Amino acid sequence: RLMRNCHCPILIVRKAQEGAYRRILVGVDFSVRSRELVNRACEIFAGTELHLFHAIGRSDEARLRSSDASVESIKAYRRQVNANAEERLVRLADSLDTRRNRVMFFVGYGDTALQTSIQQEAVSADLIVVGRQRQSCLLEMFFGSVSRRLVRISGCDILIVPQRAERMFMA
Fold first, then answer.
1. Phi first, then psi: what are they for 24, rounded to 5°?
2. What is the Cα–Cα distance from 15 to 34, expressed in whole angstroms?
3. Cα(99)–Cα(102) distance, integer angstroms
4. For 124, what's the count of Cα atoms within 13 Å in the CB-facing half-sphere?
5. Mean predicted confidence (pLDDT) in 46-68
């Protein structure tokens, strides 16, 4: 309920942090909001190792399967989508006003919250930064939000920036 009604960034702390965060994982979806979120994270957490992460959903692949596409066609589609996501992550990383050697990027495949949590564990990130889009109560009731699912399954600190908090966080 707090996440749905709060209009400012929310930091969920799982365990006491000694010193500054060392590694931050930022979930990106290639939207303008996402780019601004990454830029702001670079400013706030200057000097911290930054990991950009994008999860590719499976809904388009499921549609291909349901239309009896061949296994090779599905594999080719997956390679194309993955290459496109990696290219966009490279462009995003290159556009940042930070040293290139402290920005890494990764692409996952599947449920966004689950893949973000898996990537957080893989890189030992201390903090996950994600944006949160407003959605109807009905959609949230049936599907939940990525940020809400991430809070349930992740074991590290999470900074959630709601859509309305953009102006505060980005200012």
1. -120, 135
2. 26
3. 6
4. 1
5. 87
